[in-house]
Amino acid sequence: KQVKIAIVNSKIADISKILDSRTNYESEINFFLEKIANDVSINSLEIDRTKLTITVSSNSLSSIDKMLNSFFEMIAKKQIIKSITIQSLFSDPKSGNYGLSIKANKL
Predict the structure, then answer these.
(1) Which residue of 20, 36, 71, 79 has the lowest C-beta tally within 10 Å?
(2) What is the pTM of this model?
(3) What's the CA gap between 68 and 102, in Å, rounded?
(4) Which pLDDT tens digit goes with each residue over 62-90?
């Protein structure tokens, strides 16, 4: 009986180690969402251990600029990301929307 308890305790300890080492993507995503104005729509968002890829659109180029500048501030403050690459910048004259796609390398 004590052997079974020891095995179960060992497995619980192993599971706890795995859970503790996992990246908390929810807090990272929330941190990024705080930097995005209400009039900016997120078209896609991908995050993994090494990078974040996001595509946004808005009818306000100023709001996209503010978002991008807040990401640059994150780099300067060494918060989550270390570099940004602009994948594309586009506009749709019919809808009046602007779009931006970036890849951010994480620390």
Answers:
(1) 20
(2) 0.77
(3) 9
(4) 999 999 999 999 999 999 999 999 999 99
